[in-house]
Amino acid sequence: MASENLVSALSAGMGGALSSILLHPLDAIKTQIQSDTGKKGQASATRSTTEVCRDIVRKGGLGALYVGVWIKAFESASTKALYFYIFNFLGGGTFSSAAGELVAGYAAEILNKPLTLPLEVVAYRMICSKRPVTPTEAFRDLVDEHGIMGVYSGFTASLFAAIKPAIHFGIFEQIKKTVLQGARKELGFVESFLYGAIARAISTVVTYPFVRAKVIAQTSKDPTRASMLAIIQEEVAQGGVTGLFQGSGPEITRGVLSTAIMLSVKEKIAALNRHVLTMVLVGVAVKR
Question: pTM of the full predicted structure?
């Protein structure tokens, strides 16, 4: 059981890193759209995906679309690996009800945040910085503006947004259990891609206002913009309820593709990781 948890975690981490690298330009674009806010009392001027992409390339060239790619890939790999290890440890994928899967998924997401949220905050600060900065410089600027606890900006919103992976992985596991009958143990690539995309789209729509509030808190240089409730109230006052969904299009597109790629890679690479881990454990046993 412990080895299967490790196989699942390693496979998810690899899938998470790959999807993050492949989709980073879209991640950079949607992050900038999400972080756009108007002055107090004024609605923000929403830029389209094309406009943001053009602005990024004009200011920094094509390479600017990949600012923060490696730290974001490391954050994604760490998050996915920890999530699936904890999720499986808690019995995820074995519950008879969707509620059990959701609880295990929510707990798994919350428990990995103390380790992975600082990486996410630094990556987003790099993406939204007006000047090119290294991870170290982004971290230093963050601490100067918000203190050392600034690395946990958006933590409250993260507690609410954490239900997103619980929903989409919970739905995916339920579909997987329904589809895998008899001797079948793994989904095909197309099946994993399709079911992962459906689950992610549903979870993103449900939780998006919290996701946007989290990004605003993480990228804002204003220390007063740290309260999730205050951010949501301000966005509604400025742009109505629809303002809470600013950038939801790119977020859903990136999220669907990211999860579909990650789950597809995870399902296909699990067999290889299982074989490698077995060889390692056998080798250790022989040496003893």
Answer: 0.79
